[in-house]
Amino acid sequence: MPTDPTSAPRLQPPLRAALCAAAEAVAGVLAGHSLEDGLGGDPELAGAQRDLASAALRAYGRGDAALALLMPAPPRPVALRALLLVALARLDARPAEAHTIVNEAVAAARKVGGGRAHGLVNAVLRNYLRRASEIAARLDAGAETRYCLPGWWLQALQADHPLHWQDICASAKEHPPMCLRVNRRRCEPADYLRLLADAGMTARQVGPAALLLERPVPVLRLPQFAAGWVSVQDAGAQRAAHLIDLAPGMRVLDACAAPGGKSAHMLELGDVDLLALDAAPQRAARMAPDFARLRVTARVAVADCRATASWWDGQPFDRILADVPCTASGVLRRHPDAKWLRRRSDTTQFAQTQHAILAALWNVLAPGGKLLYATCSVFAEENSLQIQRFAAAHSDCRVLPIDDQPSLQLLPAPEHDGFFYALLSRLP
Question: Over the stretch 305-318, which tens digit does the pLDDT of each residue have?
Answer without folding.
Answer: 999 999 999 999 99
